[in-house]
Amino acid sequence: MRVPRRSVLPAAVAVALAAVGAWVDDPSTSSASAPITSIDGASSTGGATSTAPTTTAPTTTAPTTTAPPTATSCGSVVHIGDSTSIGLTSESYIGDPSLRIDAQYRRVGVGDVRLEISGARSVVERYRAPNGNEVASALKASGYEGCWVLALGVTDAANVAAGSAVLYDERIDRMMAVIGDDPVLWLTVKTLASESAWSGPNMPPWNEALLAAQARYPNIALYDWAAIVDDEWFDPDGIHYTSAGNIERARSIADALVTAYPA
What does the pLDDT read at residue 52? Predict the structure, then answer.
């Protein structure tokens, strides 16, 4: 399934990617008529009186703008994520169900939402659950055709930093070999951790590999979450998110999907 893609790269607040637009007033028109005058003046003796033709200024119409889209063309979405996505669905973090990620996807027009979220998930390694590649393979084998939101990369970057022989490009290629030409929205990653393989400096190389992958896979749209996430949205561990961070992340991911794949 191929859907025309728009890049989701931030300018200031990126594609926090909320759709903002300005409505233009109804088109207005203006016209002016030149006064009708006699060429030689009125004749009191019955002589002919000439009348200049009426002239009307050209009608001008104010340009109109189209409101930005508020819905996505993705009727089905599978969200594959690691532990950083757990808070998006958690009552403990987001008390209002309408603000959780499944409701946010439906807000922008997704009818079929499938959430595949597991702690420490990466494309390659397994921790108490299938890895990202295996989840995608099972979905494709079941006949799934639709859009993919991939909130993977934090654990992948950490595993590479810890010494994995499977590097960034191969991890991305493995996922895309399964997904094929379906539309993909892939989030960049960031942490504030200062120690361990999950530390902040280990994340940018993964993001750079995602950016480079767009040349190989034109159906990848990047949502640069790393560029817009506020440091105050991180939990004390510097990896996961507070309630405010999860609420904003759920909203902005859905809006990024609209920007990348508008209806």
Answer: 53
Higher pLDDT pick, 36 / 236? 236
Q: Considering Cα of 114, then 118, then 120, then 121, what sign does the dihedral take?
A: negative
Superfamily of domain 74-260 in CATH is SGNH hydrolase (3.40.50.1110)
Residue 42, number of CB atoms within 10 A of its CB: 7
d(CA 172, CA 148): 14
224-248 b/e (C-beta count within 10 Å ≥ 16 → b):
bbbbbbeeebbbeebbbbbbebbbb
Residue 224, SS3?
A: coil
pTM score:
0.77
| Domains of the chain, residue spans | 74-260
3-class DSSP state of 237: coil
DSSP-based three-state secondary structure for 229: coil
Question: In this predicted structure, what is the pLDDT of residue 263?
Answer: 97
Residues 6+ apart with CB under 8 A from 72: 108, 109, 110, 147, 257, 258, 260, 261, 262, 263
- Residues 65-109: tens digit of each pLDDT: 788 999 999 999 999 999 999 999 999 999 999 999 999 999 999
DSSP 8-state assignment for residue 138: H
Which among 220, 222, 225 is positioned nearest to 249, based on CA atoms? 225
23 versus 143: the higher-pLDDT residue is 143
